[in-house]
Write a structure and sequence with these properties.
41% helix; oxygen-dependent coproporphyrinogen oxidase; 10 helices; 8 strands; alpha+beta; seven-stranded antiparallel sheet; homodimer
Chain lengths: 312, 312
Amino acid sequence: MTHQTETPLFREKWIDYIYGLQAQICAALEATDGKARFETEEWERAGGSGGGGRTRVMQNGGVFEKGGVNTSVVHGRVTEGMNRELRIEGAKWFACGLSLVLHPYNPFVPTVHANWRYFELYDEDDRVSDRWFGGGTDLTPYYLFPEDAAHFHGTLKNAIEPFGDELYPRFKKWCDEYFNNAHRGTETRGIGGVFYDHLRETENLDIEKLYRFQQANGDCFLEAYLPIVAQRKDLSFTAENKYWQEIRRGRYAEFNLIHDRGTLFGLKTGGRTESILMSLPPTVRFVYHDEPAEGTPERTLLDVCRHPRRWA
Amino acid sequence: MTHQTETPLFREKWIDYIYGLQAQICAALEATDGKARFETEEWERAGGSGGGGRTRVMQNGGVFEKGGVNTSVVHGRVTEGMNRELRIEGAKWFACGLSLVLHPYNPFVPTVHANWRYFELYDEDDRVSDRWFGGGTDLTPYYLFPEDAAHFHGTLKNAIEPFGDELYPRFKKWCDEYFNNAHRGTETRGIGGVFYDHLRETENLDIEKLYRFQQANGDCFLEAYLPIVAQRKDLSFTAENKYWQEIRRGRYAEFNLIHDRGTLFGLKTGGRTESILMSLPPTVRFVYHDEPAEGTPERTLLDVCRHPRRWA
């Protein structure tokens, strides 16, 4: 199946959406933060391939200790490495997406991550031979507020449900499985959300519907996250709370550097290192054999990472 | 070539050496630290394979913020994964080694890492079909004292030289190439030392000589490192010095989690996670686009990581 006529327009529409969403999300986050502004760097891809992106990073804010909301629009020829490691078959490729990670200072405000991307493959005559969406949104609290988890998951579920009842449960499960620090048995990075990849056109979901599905995910992000920030950002906390946040941030770093396919693929194929690693938490602790005592709030959080729950 | 008669004895001799070296190094480090003691955990390998180890970890000492001196003596059947990912061909394997990492609190005292290991492969009839040594010692300073780098490299060079003039330069280069954060271009983890792997018997170096070579490396460790600790541990430092140490520790964590073959192989094949990750620094910072200004001591350190020098 080829789509040589409609696709350039479709691709452009997605690029416009992504840049618009980046501007909207950054403006809302700056308003919430009240102190720091996002710095913007436009970059171009070096080497034989083309494209670039807009990296927007905030550090040492009133609410966000470190955060990035990055877009990239990149394309190139399919290399042997992509073929072997990603099983990508085609002559040329195009990818455009937005990635964000926010690390708040207050340990009662959860870290959040989201990514929405669109991928196209072409044959030698620039005809589209394959195309798909991927992405998701997930929450990493340091202390569990069940009502926050329910709000977050509920918002995602409501946004996705119009496209099929089976989608939220499937993508929720996929998220729990993906964001797992497998070298620690079952221990998820946080309380999850949704994750999906290689979403291709089907009889029920044509490319336009997939586009609207992806947009629904992007559009509900602020609604899913900001009310939680507003609720928790002024809670007072102790040095012990901060210590525990930094331990859990260590697990976040472990996941991103050991397991996350996007991070590793980017680093090993000449992506922009600083933009990719903006996802790492600002301060981290790695403590030998830390295990919170039974009955503590720290243990409660760890328990839901070890035994993922249904939240919506 | 098979060595069915001599080898069990040879293997036992190496195991005895490793346990003795662990005891010696830990005692000397406790004496240097003056405050904390190593806690010891004996562990056994779960699952179908056998063996175990002795993990000795120190935290929040007078000199060492976190350190581990671990031994393991493990064996099993060669799995399909080992065959595919490590190109190990044989029916059964045995490995015994010591791994140590020390993270001092004072940013003027360098972090050090060493590992000495011995590996055997067997056919179905338990006859040795291959065997080799691997390991090395490398230094990660946060500020450059050229005389410390010269002492460290000089000690290693002197210990190795009796076994062949070509060995130190070859293993020094191998070390610079191995401990490189390739996702940052050329940026080594520290100022190196020596690194080597798959050292098999040759006409010039039979297995007994290799054993003495490996012993020479292990035996010179305290002499290579402790005088540097003594020289720098009482220097006063600022919050800025500590900040820079934590930035560089971030690069240490990046290397270990993204590139280090030993770490990744251990984590992905069911090694003891806490023992493997004791190598991670106690506190770490990941800052977007940190680049020290020209002419600062921080920049001097970064320059020698970007352009490895000859020290001995």
